Amino acid sequence: MDDTAQRHPILVEFTTGPGLRQVALSPADALERSAQAVDDAMGVIREMADRVRDTVESLAKRPSSVEVAFGIKFDCTASAVVAKASAEAAINVTLVWESVKLS
Fold first, then answer.
1. What band does 83 get if pLDDT is binned at 50, 70 and 90?
2. Given 1, 21, 62, 75, which is the most exposed site by the fewest CB atoms within 10 A?
3. Which residue range(s) make up the domain with 47?
4. Is residue 13 a part of any domain in this protein?
């Protein structure tokens, strides 16, 4: 965890799945779990950006621009996952590359 996360804590509301229920967490546990979930979400964004860039760079004819939009939800068992629908996303992410050469 970096200093920014410690200075500006972000609390995450986790969704529960069928047969699961949310239990009370201490404030310290809630902060720690939330920080991990946000870190996981940032990892999902980095991985998605890397994969899109790699895919576009492998194309014989590259588009002049690329835009990818996806949502991330926070799940009580998996932390941060790509949402199957934007309505269930806690974070909506749009990645845009405007140049012909993606780096």
1. confident
2. 21
3. 25-97
4. no
